[in-house]
From TrEMBL:
InterPro entries: Beta-lactam/transpept-like, Peptidase_S13
Organism: freshwater metagenome
Keyword set, alphabetical order: Hydrolase
Family of the protein in this entry: Belongs to the peptidase S13 family.
Keyword Cytoplasm: no
Protein name per the record: Unannotated protein
């Protein structure tokens, strides 16, 4: 009987040990070997990877971590960080239309609202500035000013994106209003603005930034980057955003020499970062309460935004445990953020920019990254055997 109990105990222990690798959270010491095996999968094609213990800052695992790689939309993490640093997240950006002090003139005074909607219903639903609302009211005011005629008008404008100017032109042209558009400066727009006609404003910048990160909106990322560059005193263009991205790294003691920032969204295939660079930045930002919004705004695996369908089939145990920014270009799949692992949290960056082109290759790369993180985020099942059951 005694021998039978010992046999049962040993059999149970062997069974639990054999199951542990598939179910238990990997300890920091066991991660390198497991990651090394996982990363040999052809689906990831020699990626750049780093995993950092968020508590200690220790690099638990690294592969090609100093190799410059395409970030794709992971680049938006830079845009989000500089927006938090330089912009007032509680502020709103106004756009107003006034009758001009001269006959047959309208004055549009903008503030580079990054999110003017072409659809009034969408604008109302999402608290966005509505171009149709501004356009219709301005059109009616012009008719009233000129006894029903829309001929011979000039629209003077300041602080509007060129695309928004084009959208105003197209909106009015469809309704028989074809004014001359004249760009002017802030001071001149104030001097030429007469009776107020209509105005609208953006959501708080915090809401714009949250949407940008959650849904990886390229145009918003570009515009937030430029607004941040202007607020920092740099040029209102891609060159300005590159300068503040570099300063962000250097401010946190991170080597910026391998950063190539062609745009603020990650669309350019010429952008370059390293896994170490991004990993260190995410680690440093998470320690600073000022950047807590960035962490909270990230999509959650299997739950929200661009991660809402991730991990559901590939690594269900990781659902709700990963906060990260996705990235995708043809031949490039990236993911960077944070993964919870029982009593700890890791910063991770995966840059797979050497995969085959095509939808199928991208899908396989995403699944491989999900499974890899699933090994870290897997719930811990204690291997305990009660003496009372023997």
């Amino acid at each position: 009987m005694k021998h039978t109990r010992i046999f049962i105990f040993v059999l149970a222990l062997i069974t639990l040990v054999s199951l542990a690798p598939a179910n238990a959270v990997l300890s920091p010491a066991s991660i390198p070997a497991v990651f090394e095996e996982f990363l040999h999968t052809p689906a990831l094609a020699n990626p750049a990877v780093i995993l950092i213990d968020e508590t200690t800052g220790e690099v638990v695992y690294g592969k090609n971590a100093f190799s410059p790689r395409r970030p794709a939309s992971v680049m938006k993490l830079f845009s989000g960080a500089v927006a938090i640093k330089y912009l007032d997240l509680q502020s709103r950006l106004a756009t107003t239309v006034s009758l001009g002090t001269n006959e047959k003139t309208l004055v549009i005074q903008g503030s580079y609202d990054p999110w003017i909607s072409l659809n009034d219903n969408v604008a109302n639903k999402m608290d966005r500035t509505s171009l149709p609302y501004l356009g219709f009211n301005a059109l009616n005011a012009a008719k009233k000013m000129n006894h029903g005629s829309l001929k011979g008008f000039t629209v003077m404008y300041s602080n509007l994106y060129s695309q928004d100017v084009a959208n105003f032109k197209a909106f009015w042209a469809q309704r028989g209003f074809n004014p001359i558009f004249k760009p002017i400066g802030n001071e001149e727009s104030t001097l030429n603005a007469g009776e107020f006609v209509v105005g609208d404003q953006s959501p708080q910048i915090s809401e714009i930034l949250k949407y940008t990160l959650l849904w990886s909106e390229n145009n918003l990322a570009e515009r937030l980057g430029r607004l941040s560059a202007r607020a920092a005193g740099y040029s209102f263009d891609d060159k300005g955003t590159a300068q503040i991205f570099t300063e962000l790294l250097e401010e946190h003691g991170i080597d910026s020499s391998k950063l190539v920032a062609i745009d603020a969204s990650g669309l350019s295939r010429e952008n370059r970062i390293t896994a170490t660079m991004m990993g260190q930045l995410l680690y440093q930002l998470h320690k600073d309460p000022k950047y807590a919004f960035l962490y909270e705004a990230l999509p959650v695996g299997g739950v929200s935004g661009t991660l809402r369908t991730r991990f559901v089939k590939t690594a269900p145990n990781a659902i709700g445990l990963v906060r990260a920014k996705t990235g995708s270009l043809n031949g490039t799949i990236t993911l960077a953020g944070y993964v919870q692992s029982t009593g700890r949290e890791y910063v991770f960056v995966t840059l797979a920019d050497e995969i085959s082109r095509g939808v199928a290759a991208g899908k396989k790369a995403r699944a491989a990254i999900d499974r890899l993180l699933g090994r870290v985020a897997a719930p811990n099942i204690p291997a305990e055997i009660s003496a009372a059951t023997l």
